[in-house]
């Protein structure tokens, strides 16, 4: 009888450990990873770019975005420094960043940036919050 009791207890412990592990994995997967727009922007026409700059922050904010880096000094620690301004915009998710980029509001002003700059935009998935 004692052997059956020990086996049953061991099986129960194994099941509980398995359930706890599954919950932990699910919780980690359920955390949404932030999305970041990373841009290098070389301004070629400041007057036209001003039209973009008047509306862009409002549109970014309306999609939950926030400027993390917006111009400012950049120091290359390794490799070549960027030849342009660096802008990083954070969003709650990659999907939200894509929603902003594809939005009708942003499409309406995107042409100003494209015609007034040489730009490179990247969409990067961030690390899920701990």
Question: Could you describe the 3D structure shown?
Answer:
- This protein is of the alpha+beta class.
- It folds into two domains: 30 residues; 91 residues, 2-Layer Sandwich (Alpha-Beta Plaits), CATH 3.30.70.100.
- 52% of the residues lie in helices and 23% in strands.
- The protein has a four-stranded antiparallel β-sheet with strand order 2-3-1-4, covered by helices on one side.
- The protein is elongated.
- It starts with a helix and ends in a 5-residue tail after the last strand.
What key phrases describe this protein's structure?
4 strands; alpha+beta; Alpha-Beta Plaits; four-stranded antiparallel β-sheet; 130 residues
Put the structure in a nutshell.
The protein has 130 residues and is an alpha+beta fold.
Percent of residues in beta strands?
A: 15-25%
* CATH architecture field of the largest domain: 2-Layer Sandwich
Shape: elongated
Mean model confidence by pLDDT = 87
Write the layout of secondary structure elements.
Blueprint: H1 2-30, E1 35-43, H2 46-62, E2 66-70, E3 85-91, H3 94-102, H4 104-116, E4 117-125
Antiparallel strand pairs: 1-3, 1-4, 2-3
């Amino acid at each position: 009888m004692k052997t059956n009791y020990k086996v049953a207890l061991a099986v129960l412990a194994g099941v509980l450990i398995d359930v706890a592990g599954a919950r932990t994995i699910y919780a980690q997967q359920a955390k949404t990873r932030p999305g970041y727009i990373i841009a290098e922007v070389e301004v070629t026409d400041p007057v036209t770019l001003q039209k973009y700059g008047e509306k862009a922050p409002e549109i970014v904010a309306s999609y939950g975005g926030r400027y993390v880096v917006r111009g400012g000094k950049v120091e290359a620690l390794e490799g070549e420094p960027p030849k342009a301004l660096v802008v990083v915009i954070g969003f709650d998710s990659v999907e939200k960043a894509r929603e902003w980029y594809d939005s009708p509001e942003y499409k309406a002003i995107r042409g100003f940036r494209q015609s007034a700059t040489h730009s490179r935009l990247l969409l990067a998935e961030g690390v899920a919050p701990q």
